[in-house]
Amino acid sequence: MTRTLWSLARGLAAETRIFIDRAAPDTMIKSLSRWTSLVTRGTSLTGAGGGRSGALQRKQEATVFMLEREAKQPLSYQDQRRPREAPVARGERIVRVPDRDLNAAVDSACEALLGLQHAEGYWCFELEADCTISAEYILMMHFTDELDPALQAKIAVYLRERQDAHGGWSLYPGGDFDISGSVKVYYALKLAGDSADAPHMAQAREAILAHGGAAHSNVFTRIALALFEQVPWRAVPFIPVEMLLLPRWFPFEISKVSYWSRTVVIPLAILCSLKARARNPSRVRIDELFTVPPEQERNYFPVRSRANRVWLVIERIAHRLEPLIPGWVRRRAIKKAEAWIIERLNGSDGLGAIFPAMVNAHEALALLGYAADHPYRITTKAALRKLLVIGERSAYCQPCVSPVWDTGLACLALHAANSGKATGDTLRALDWLKDKQLLDQRGDWSEYRPALRPGGWPFQFSNTHYPDLDDTALVAWAMHQTGEERYRESIERATEWLCGMQSKNGGFGSFDADNTHYYLNEIPFADHGALLDPPTADVSARCATLLGRLRKREYDACLSRCLDYLRREQEQDGSWFGRWGTNYIYGTWSVLIALEQVGESKMQPFIRRAVEWLKWVQRADGGWGESNDSYLYPEQAGKAEASTAFQTAWAVLALMAAGETGSREVQRGAEFLLRTQQPDGLWKDPVFTCPGFPRVFYLKYHGYQKFFPLWALARYRNPRKLKAP
């Protein structure tokens, strides 16, 4: 009873400290009024209906929130905080988890995970996206007239099976209707032979029309429709290939955008500048998806902001001036774009090693006259086919593959299961990773860091122009855990490259430094809001984790600036935003792990705030869960309809990193993981695990449900092993 009262008192004190936060009385009153506003707004958002205007308003509100975050305009604590839910009477008796149960669970998970290791030493699990990627694969086959009827039929099965109750398709299971994805999937199914009169097609068409029709889809969908002659070219932004000739000082110059934007836009600029036309051998049209005939539509570009209005005027003027571009200038620009693509084709792993760039490159090369049997076309087609996951009755296309990321995380989980030490299996995996390090290749990143030596790892099997900082820090971290001398040079080169890629604000982006030209998010093309690669808390935390482990004086300044950045990025409720994992639970896990490795005192107020937030959002079943809805509606941070094993693992690992291994919350989280472990030793969560791009594109790492719960249970068990006689 005494312990329970003390726990309640401590929680109340923490809540009071968080709420007051050194605020003046008038600030507290203002906070209470905003709480009421958030509750009201949250009720309306989760209610039924909403209509086209309500959906548009919600998306605009979410866009404003994300743009404020990207521009690093601090949001007040009162805008983020929501009333604490009434505690649920659980009626359970908390008892110590038996060691035998923990040991059996960890051993079973280790055996299962090791059984999935490839002979070469790596792990690579499926990486599933929403239905747009698979729909685009069908569109690609009809664009080039390279049809594979059997494959098309299997992809169509996959698409039909994921149609939601609202009639269309969502960006993730359980998500809202997405008009852009629904238009693409509808068109793909019609190309695959589905009748427009079929019940599922009629239902999808009704939902699309109810949301304004295909004209209200996003830029990427409208570009696809323009390529298939379903909308006029004025329905898409002006994407002149001549942008490659612009000097670096120009406001829009290609190196100012993210790597993924560059690799997608440059081949796309060829397609748009030459007004490419899909072969579309079946001549399939989707006129029935428009409320106004496409040629008569005048509202393809709704205004997002005042700055966007200015850019729209500039873009429309430039569009009308396109006929004045001299022919020799266009030919020169196309040649430069062609050479740029060919230099980065990346063998059978594809341009940028991501599907959107790869499919644009494949179609651009076809448009430029490369025959189907040309080595470049054969290579691009093979790269696309490598992304397919083909089953007995259905198939889908992955956006990319993740062997380096999966292997690094699997090694960390297995090290935890072996009391922090390497095993023969993880050393074999790390040796495979050692050979993947890019020590000589100078990628696009070197344009702004010409004197910096390479030393990063890619996310995929090969992506020589585009190593990423998150993978690099993760792999070097796993290597450092081993204490093996054979990895010393790899770790040093990785750390040197990481420190050289630090942004001015102290944080780290994913692929580039200082990719923070936020005004570019207002151009008409950037309605997805994912044009840039600014520093983020999760990637920065991974870099800080490595630097903290190394504890070398030459890295002190870099680490200090990074820690300052992480403190500034903390949300007012104590959490951190998760750019590459859903969402605030992931971001908070990333940062608390880093702070532990750095050696920060666990009693610092900002760390205690994070701990209290994690405890506050724990669910009644002992687990944690957070929906991708939290990217649209920040008041949903830490909330979901159900707990998941991978998010529970993140929360448990985060709390243990903050000194809470013996807490009731960690014990209940461990019990949840034990209860949900499957007979095969692993875990199974149906939900998507992260955004590719918040609000517009989401992913499911199939490996997350395999190694994160193992990692959490192993770390929870380790102190007991040390105390055992």
Describe this structure in words.
- The protein has 725 residues and is mostly helical.
- Among the domains are: 2-80, no CATH class; 127-296 and 305-397, Glycosyltransferase (Alpha/alpha barrel).
- Helix content is 51%, strand content 2%.
- The chain contains 26 helices and 5 strands.
- It has helices at residues 2-20, 25-46, 51-70, 77-80, 99-114, 131-144, 149-161, 179-191, 199-210, 219-227, 259-273, 306-321, 327-343, 355-367, 375-385, 403-417, 424-436, 469-482, 488-500, 537-550, 556-569, 584-598, 605-616, 645-657, 664-676, 704-723; strands spanning 127-129, 388-390, 395-397, 690-693, 697-701.
- The strands form 2 sheets. Strands 1-5-4 form a 3-stranded antiparallel β-sheet. The protein has a two-stranded antiparallel sheet with strand order 2-3.
- Strand 4 and strand 5 form a beta hairpin.
- The chain is globular, with a radius of gyration of 26 Å.
